[in-house]
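Example 292.
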Amino acid sequence: MDWLSGFANPIERDVPLGDLTWYRIGGRARYLSRPDNESELERLVRRASEQGVDLKILGRGANVLVRDNGFNGVVVRLDTPAFQRTEVNGERVRVGAGVDLMRLAKRLSHDGLSGLECMAGIPGTIGGAVRMNAGGQFGCIGDVVERCRLLDANGVIETWSKDRLAFGYRISAIGDRVVLSADLRLRRSDRAETRRRFEEIFAAKTASQPISERSAGCVFKNPPGASAGALIDAAGLKGSRCGGAVVSQRHANFICADPSAKASDVERLAGMIAKRVRAEYGTELELEIDIW
Ligand code: EPU
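Predicted structure in complex with EPU:
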């Protein structure tokens, strides 16, 4: 039997990935799967691992640059109902990996549950956000995660508590495991206040970042004690271009893509930025986006 057969949602082949990402560029996935439930996902992950086929989860595609030659493995989307559940129980919320982060943050803060206001303006799914401990100057998601259910390449499901998840700056111990769901601990608070805070943070982001343009958010992590955006700006790189990729005038840590851009333009521009910042300031910039 073909290792790809027997799934309730048939696995597609040779699927363009660009339109599934915010950059809207890049090649195709060899396979694309949208598992119907956890046991189908578990079977897929196990079979891919046995076959030595690479597997990646694609959330909202907000932090990903897919290379022009695509991804030679299985791309998994957790956008079926089984992964989209949200259960609110007092101040505790269990949320599926495929849930849209910003919609959840808006809903909960408008309902007076405080803790996710800092996610205003951060696109992505819960799974992607938890894995990289998404956040900004107002806080990060790891601050409110109590535990996570994770699936490993052997198909084993484990619940990891906050300590084991080891959240750091845009990093956690999750690695290549698949996030199934997360348990969040929020605080019941004044509804008008949490709502105001969410809207205020959202407004600050739209004012300082090119969020309506095609990008993957901040390209580089902030180096310890410094701001990548400020360094790139000070190096005079705003507006610099490689093909269809350009350093944003609004925020220098964003590389925006014209409709004509290739993924290789973005990657070349990122390389050029890192080189210039190294030469000018002796600072090594580390990529924050995922390049597939
Ligand atoms: N700055 C400049 N020029 C620029 C951009 C920034 O001088 O072109 C200066 C700002 O004036 C400020 C400092 O650099 O003094 C820091 O900038 P900002 O407040 O915009 O925050 P950031 O550190 O660049 C971080 C996260 C963002 C997050 C914001 C807001 C990283 C790499 N970036 O940006 O996250 O949205 O805080 O909370 O940690 C992302 O992860 O994709 C992302 C955009």
